[in-house]
Amino acid sequence: MDSQNPSAQAPAASRNEAKNHPSRVTSRGVVHENTPHTTHFTVVGNHLAQHGELSLMAIGLATHIQSLPAGSAMDIRSLADRFPEGRDRIAGALRELETHGYLRRDKEHTAGGRVVTRTVSCNQPDRTGAGRAVRPRPEPPPRRPQPPPRHPGNQDRTEIPRRRPQNRPEGQARWTDERTPQPQTWPPGNAPHRSDQRERPRRKGLPAVPAPAYATPDLLHTAVGVLSGLRLGDPRLLISAAEAEHLAPGVVAWLERELPPEAVHQALTSGLPTEPLYRPAALLAHRLTARLPPLPPFRPPKEQPPPLYPLHNCDICDRAYRGPEPGKCAPCRTEETHGQLTT
Known about the structure:
Among the domains are: 46-121, Arc Repressor Mutant, subunit A (Orthogonal Bundle), CATH 1.10.10; 217-269 and 280-290, no CATH class; 311-342, no CATH class. The chain is 30% helix and 8% strand. It has helices at residues 46-49, 56-67, 76-82, 87-99, 194-197, 217-228, 230-233, 241-255, 261-269, 280-290, 330-342; strands spanning 23-25, 32-34, 103-109, 115-121, 311-313, 320-322. The chain has a two-stranded antiparallel sheet. Strands 3-4 form a two-stranded antiparallel ribbon. It has a two-stranded antiparallel ribbon with strand order 5-6. Helix 6 packs parallel to helix 9 and helix 8 runs parallel beside helix 10.
């Protein structure tokens, strides 16, 4: 019993548990290998990391948000560009954090009167709900009193009398001026929507097209036929009747330059871009102007051939001759004239 067993294992040496050395805690489950951080670290409480109601997406998003520096973009679009999750999942995780007090969205009034939302990340759950109401608008700085305007030569100017309206309707000014137009009032419930009061942006007009020398009805009819047939070559060149009426004079200018309709069709449909055409009429107007061919060369008019008269029989020699009227042929007229001169 007192003999030693030389094959027995030696006891494990005690490990130095100083803070500067990594420690390994062995258990049946997870094994932690901890190294102290000195820079670039964020402290996250176990109440967040081991929260029983938050989803894993919300816990990870809260950890990422707390690691961001102040002033970083934290909207849904920026987070969706950073992580592979979609906007719907990120928005749901933000709502979870806001419900459990780890995120707060405060609405504040700016000096210009706008309401902006400021997102606040809390490392401790905020159960009070403070800051969710809209903060009061800051009071504008007091204005310096301005002196009344001076009117030279009319120092004793009397002010226009003001009157207080009787039975002031809702939406009307309290004090009115006789020379100031009254604002338009609407019955309750029938006021127009704000979107209806905005001026809709006007669509840009079509570019100008070449003007023909003389647009005859036949040429205009042919030009409209050329424009309506463009969609047969390319379905993207479908235009409206008003656009065809605007482009028809430009096509007439091409037809006046002795070009057949087939050549105009080929010039307008060849070399089109492959991307979608959002304004085909504007593209056609540009091509009609930029690719307008020059005028044909000047050709002097041809001499008219002599008229071809019908055949007649001569009254003297009965020979056939061509002339405007029946009578005598040229030889007989010459002999008759020569005989008269001799006598």
